[in-house]
Design goal:
The protein is mainly α and 77 residues long. It has helices at residues 12-15, 23-36, 42-48, 55-61; strands at 5-6, 62-63. 42% of the residues lie in helices and 5% in strands.
Amino acid sequence: MPTKVRVNLANPLELQELPGVGPRQVEAILKFRAEHGPIQDERQLAAILGGQAGAATLRELADFSPADATAPEAPGA
C-alpha cells in the first residue's frame, strides 16, 4: 500500500504525488489552506482541484487529518 499524502501538512512536492496535481493545483491547495484552514475531505479537495481527481482516488491516496490542528500557513498558525 502506498504512503498517503498528508494533504494539510504536505509541502508542494509532496502534494504533486497525488494524481492530477501539478504546480497550478498545488497553488490552489496552498491558497485554500492559507485562507480557510485544513481541507476536510476528498470531496472538498476534488472541488479545489476543479473536479480533476475523483473523490474515490483521493480517499485512497490522501490523509486529511489536520495533525496539530492546522497547516503551517493556515490562519492563526
